[in-house]
Write a structure and sequence with these properties.
With 455 residues, the protein is α/β, with parallel strands linked by helices. The protein has a domain at 66-349: Methylmalonyl-CoA mutase (TIM Barrel). It has 17 helices and ten strands.
Length: 455
C-alpha cells in the first residue's frame, strides 16, 4: 500500500528542492541564511535526500548494548556491595575505576559474574597487579576489558605510568592476558578536554595506530586483537551519532594496513564539559539525549553520569537515577529493538561520511609529522584542543552557546553553596611532567564560581 501511495508522486530532485527554498527566502541569500558551519568544519545544509547522499555507510552494529554502572574501588568491601547492588538494580556491565592498587582477590571473592561485562579504568598498573587482577576477574566468570592505555595516561597526566620502557612492556603484557581484551584507548580524554567530534576521531585513530605500529615492530601483533574504546558523549545529538559510526569506518580502514583483525568494543559516557551545579536536574535531560546518541551510534555499552556527579559524593539516589535513565531507554523506549536505526538517514549518513573524510585528513597529517606521541610531546594536540575549548568558552561567555538553567533561563534566586560536597572546579597541581597534560574543564566553571562568590 505504501509503495503504491508513493508512486502517485513524482520524485523531487535536489535542484528543485533548492529552487523552492530560494523562492521562499524572498531575496535573502541562501548560503548566508541556511548554511551553518560546525566546529568540525562541516557545512550543515537545510535538506538532504538520496541524491545528495547516494551511498549508505556500511557500519557494523552490536546486537544489543549494555546498561553500565561506574563503581570506584577504594574499599573493596564497599565496592563488592555496590557491584552486587548495581547488578540487582539492572546493570549489565560495570565500569571499575581506581586510583591506587587494591586487593583484587578480595574484590572478586565469591562473586559469580557470568553474563556481566567489566570495563576497567585504572590510574595505575604494575606487572604483579595485572596478573593478580586478571586471575581473580577471570575466576568470576565476567567478560573483562582491562583497558590498559599508557598513551592515555600520558596525555591525561603528563607522565608515563612508570617509564616509557616499562609502560610499553606493560602494553605487550596486556594483550597476553586471557581476558576479553587488555588494550584500551581513552578517546574520552580528548573529548572531555574540549576536542570537537572530528578531532576525537583523528586523535583516536592515531592513538590506535601508535599501538598497532609498536606491536607490529615488536612482532607482537596477534592475528586477532580486541581493543576497548572509552568515549565521552557531547551534546550535539546528530553529530555524536555520526561520530561513533564514522570511527568504525576509519578503524576498518586502518586494520587493512596491518595483518590483524581488530575487534573494537566501545564504552561511552556523557561528557562532563556541559554539566552544571546550578539547576542540576537539567543534567538528567542532557545525559538522556547524550546516551541516546551513543546507542544510535552503535556503542556496546553506555555508562551514564549521575545528575549530581559534579558536586556531590557518590550517593544511592544519583546512581540509581542514572541507571534508571538507561533502563528506561532500553526497556521502555525500546532502544534495543532495532539494530542500526540510523541506517539510511540522509543527514546522519552525510555527517558520517564528512566526519570520516575530515578526520582521515588530520590523521594523515599527524602520521606524517611523526605520530600521536610525538605530536603530544610537541604540544600540537594540546594546542589544537585548547583552541576548540577556548572557542566554546567564548561562545558560552557571550551567550552564543546556551546552557539551560545556567546562562539561559537561570534561577536567579537558587543557592547551592551549602549542598556542594566536592570541589567542582579545575584543580591544577604544580608538578613536573614530561609533556603538557590535557586540561579537563567544564564550560560553566567561571560562571558558577562568580555565582557562588555572590550567594
Amino acid at each position: 500500500m505504501s509503495e503504491q501511495l508513493f508512486e502517485q508522486f513524482d520524485p523531487v530532485s535536489a535542484k528543485q528542492w533548492k529552487q523552492s527554498i530560494q523562492a521562499g527566502l524572498r531575496g535573502a541569500d541562501y548560503n548566508e541564511t541556511l548554511l551553518t558551519q560546525t566546529p568540525e568544519g562541516i557545512t550543515i545544509k537545510p535538506f538532504y535526500n538520496a541524491e545528495t547522499t547516494p551511498n549508505n555507510c556500511n557500519v557494523s552494529y552490536p546486537e544489543s548494548w549494555s546498561v553500565t554502572q561506574a563503581i570506584f574501588v577504594h574499599d573493596t568491601r564497599i565496592a563488592r556491595g555496590l557491584m552486587l547492588k548495581s547488578i540487582d538494580g539492572g546493570a549489565e556491565a560495570i565500569l571499575l575505576q581506581a586510583k591506587t592498587v587494591f586487593d583484587a582477590p578480595a574484590l572478586f571473592e565469591g562473586l559469580q559474574l557470568a553474563g556481566i561485562t567489566l570495563y576497567c579504568d585504572f590510574d595505575f598498573y604494575t606487572a604483579d597487579f595485572l596478573k593478580e587482577f586478571s586471575a581473580a576477574a577471570q575466576q568470576s566468570g565476567a567478560e573483562v576489558h582491562l583497558g590498559i592505555d599508557i598513551i592515555g595516561h600520558l596525555a591525561r597526566s603528563g607522565n608515563w605510568i612508570h617509564s616509557n620502557e616499562q609502560d610499553h612492556q606493560l602494553l605487550i603484557e596486556s594483550i597476553k592476558t586471557p581476558l576479553a581484551s587488555g588494550l584500551g584507548v581513552h578517546i574520552d580524554n580528548y573529548g572531555n578536554a574540549g576536542a570537537n567530534a572530528m578531532q576525537q576521531l583523528a586523535y583516536g585513530l592515531a592513538h590506535t595506530n601508535e599501538y598497532l605500529n609498536y606491536l607490529a615492530q615488536k612482532d607482537a601483533l596477534p592475528a586477532e586483537l580486541s581493543i576497548s574504546y572509552y568515549w565521552s558523549i557531547g551534546p550535539n545529538y546528530f553529530m555524536e551519532i555520526a561520530k561513533f559510526r564514522a570511527f568504525k569506518l576509519l578503524l576498518a580502514s586502518l586494520q587493512h594496513e596491518y595483518d590483524t583483525n581488530i575487534r573494537g568494543v566501545h564504552l561511552a559516557r556523557p561528557s562532563r564539559r556541559n554539566k552544571t551545579i546550578y539547576d542540576p536536574n537539567v543534567n538528567m535531560l542532557r545525559t538522556t539525549t547524550e546516551c541516546m546518541s551513543a546507542v544510535l551510534g552503535g556503542v556496546d555499552a553506555v555508562c551514564n553520569l549521575p545528575y549530581d556527579t559534579v558536586y556531590h559524593k557518590s550517593n544511592d539516589f544519583g546512581e540509581r537515577i542514572s541507571r534508571n535513565q538507561l533502563l528506561i531507554l532500553k526497556h521502555e523506549s525500546y532502544f534495543d529493538q532495532v539494530i542500526n536505526a540510523a541506517d539510511g538517514a540522509y543527514f546522519i549518513e552525510d555527517l558520517t561520511k564528512d566526519l570520516a573524510e575530515k578526520a582521515l585528513e588530520v590523521f594523515k597529517q599527524i602520521e606524517a609529522s611523526g605520530g600521536l606521541v610525538n605530536a603530544l610531546k610537541l604540544g600540537t594536540i594540546q594546542r589544537k584542543i585548547k583552541e576548540q575549548a577556548k572557542a566554546a568558552q567564548e561562545a558560552f561567555d557571550n551567550d552564543a552557546l546556551p546552557l539551560l538553567g545556567t546562562n539561559l533561563y537561570p534561577k536567579s534566586d537558587e543557592k547551592v553553596g551549602q549542598t556542594v560536597e566536592l570541589y567542582p572546579f579545575l584543580k591544577q597541581e604544580q608538578r613536573k611532567t614530561i609533556i603538557e597534560p590535557l586540561i579537563i574543564k567544564r564550560i560553566a566553571e567561571n560562571h558558577e564560581k562568580n555565582r557562588l562568590d555572590h550567594e
